[in-house]
Design goal:
Blueprint: H1 7-56, H2 63-78, E1 83-89, E2 92-96, E3 108-114, E4 117-125, E5 135-141, H3 143-178, H4 180-191, H5 208-256, H6 263-294, E6 303-306, H7 307-324, E7 328-332, E8 336-339, H8 341-357, E9 364-371, E10 375-383, H9 417-427, E11 431-436, E12 440-448
Parallel strand pairs: 7-9
Antiparallel strand pairs: 1-2, 1-5, 3-4, 4-5, 6-8, 9-10, 10-12, 11-12
Helix pairs in contact: 1-3, 5-6, 6-9, 7-8, 8-9
Length: about 450
């Protein structure tokens, strides 16, 4: 399996590649500029030599006349050892300073290589604009130019290689230094476990680009820590809730089986065990309901509801219980919304049940409904001893009991009612919160406007 490159190595190679490309591009441009400059210099030198040769051969129009000027021509060429000349007229060569070399005949400037020697060839008539004028072919040895260009090309390649190597080394060092916070994050992430969720990344010396990532990472660790703490407490609460009924079932059954008993005693024992099993089944059902809510599986139906009618039906259901407790039930206002009738009735029933259980005799439970342009507000308020402000955020936690004196062994006291109510309200896109004073408590549900 091929080992993947690290991020620092990738950055170093990327820096080296960028440097090499830029250096190579600059070298190629400089090389082309140098070649163009040398061609321009050669053109200027050939032009000046052409003027001198035309002056020397001025008026020459026959081989006999050329022979008279040949000595003067050779003297002029001897002063320019890198220059050679060929003179042709009417298909005949009057003078050939480069015998055996095939030269281009087209007018203008040309480049030629022969036997390892570089030439710049320039064709021009002896008399410009005169048909049949002898043709002058000037050959300029430019080998020294080519040697210079070759050395420059070698220098360019050497510079490109050294620059890429130096940039790769410096880039690797810079990348490792710059990515040190990422390695620190990796070390913290590797050390995170169920027993070390309290570790956090230091944000004081983080680069700006990584500060947000470190903040998000710390926030994630905080959420994981909170979720793990809740899960641990939740597991302990479940074990605590199930321990009492299981212990009751075991003890009761063992006592019944210690000796033979009348049939009526067995029947009574089975009825007692049935109550405990029903409570355990209700607890499990409530937990499954909350689990569905946690995973977004509560899909409430959307039907038009008149909340006043739903509240009135619940008040009628709780009337006998309220009369036994000497508590007055009052409904104020009405509202319309869209939601699941069964789920909303369950949420309101939990709130009314809680309010009745904690309202002293002679007290009052009041249900208020207000409909606005933004949505519907429903409040269940009861008189009685208030709830301390420090306990209000915990009321909707699972298995939480604000009153530690409440007895165990009853599903309505399991501490799941408000958690289920909150899940139902959230599934409808609303929110629920609690307010409490010295002698009153109010649970407020806010639901979005129904369609």
């Amino acid at each position: 399996m091929i080992k993947r490159l690290s991020l620092a190595s990738r950055l170093a190679l990327l820096f080296a590649a960028c440097t090499a490309v830029v250096s190579l591009l600059a070298g190629v441009l400089f090389n082309h500029a140098s070649e163009a400059h040398f061609i321009e210099l050669d053109q200027q030198q050939l032009d000046s030599q052409l003027v001198a040769l035309r002056s020397t051969l001025q008026g020459v129009d026959s081989p006999q006349f050329f022979a008279q000027r040949e000595a003067q021509l050779r003297a002029e060429l001897n002063r320019q050892p890198e220059l050679a000349l060929r003179v042709t007229a009417q298909g005949q060569r009057w003078f050939d300073g480069a015998p055996g070399i095939s030269l281009p005949e087209a007018p203008g400037l040309h480049s030629l290589q022969n036997a390892g020697t570089e030439y710049r060839v320039y064709n021009a008539p002896l008399v410009a604009g005169q048909p049949g004028s002898p043709q002058l072919t000037l050959m300029l040895d430019i080998t020294h130019h080519q040697h210079f260009l070759q050395r420059m090309q070698h220098l360019i390649w050497l510079t490109v290689g050294l620059s890429a190597l130096a940039t790769a080394l410096l880039g690797a060092w810079a990348a490792r230094s710059g990515l040190r916070p990422l390695r620190r994050m990796g070390e913290v992430a590797a050390s995170v476990s169920a027993h070390s969720l309290t570790q956090r990344l230091p944000q004081q010396h983080m680069p700006v680009e990584l500060a947000e990532l470190a903040q998000a990472f710390n926030a994630m660790l905080g959420r994981l820590d909170d979720a793990f703490q809740r899960l641990s407490a939740f597991s302990a609460d479940i074990a605590h809730e199930l321990r009492t009924p299981l212990s009751n079932l075991l003890t009761h059954t063992q006592v019944i089986l210690t000796q033979p008993r009348p049939l009526e005693d067995y029947r009574e024992a089975l009825h007692s065990n049935l109550e405990e099993l029903q409570w355990m089944a209700q607890l499990v059902n409530d937990m499954l309901y909350l689990a569905k809510a946690d995973h977004g599986l509560l899909m409430p139906k959307r039907e038009a509801l008149v909340l006043g009618d739903e509240v009135e039906a619940l008040i009628e259901f709780f009337t006998l219980l309220a009369e036994d407790a000497h508590v007055r039930l009052v409904r104020e206002g009405t509202a319309h919304t869209a939601g699941d009738r069964g789920m909303l009735r369950r949420a309101l029933s939990n709130l009314l049940d809680n309010a009745l259980r904690f309202t002293p005799a002679g007290g009052e439970v009041r249900v208020r409904m207000v409909e606005t342009e933004r949505g519907v507000t429903l409040a269940v308020e009861n008189t009685g001893e208030g709830i301390p402000a420090a306990l209000l955020p915990k009321l909707f936690d699972r298995f939480y009991r604000a009153d530690p004196a409440r007895r165990e062994g009853s599903s309505e006291h399991a501490g799941l009612g408000l958690a289920i109510t909150q899940s139902i309200v959230r599934a409808h896109g609303g929110r629920i919160y609690c307010e409490s004073g010295a002698d009153w408590t109010r649970f407020v549900i806010e639901l979005p406007k129904g369609d």
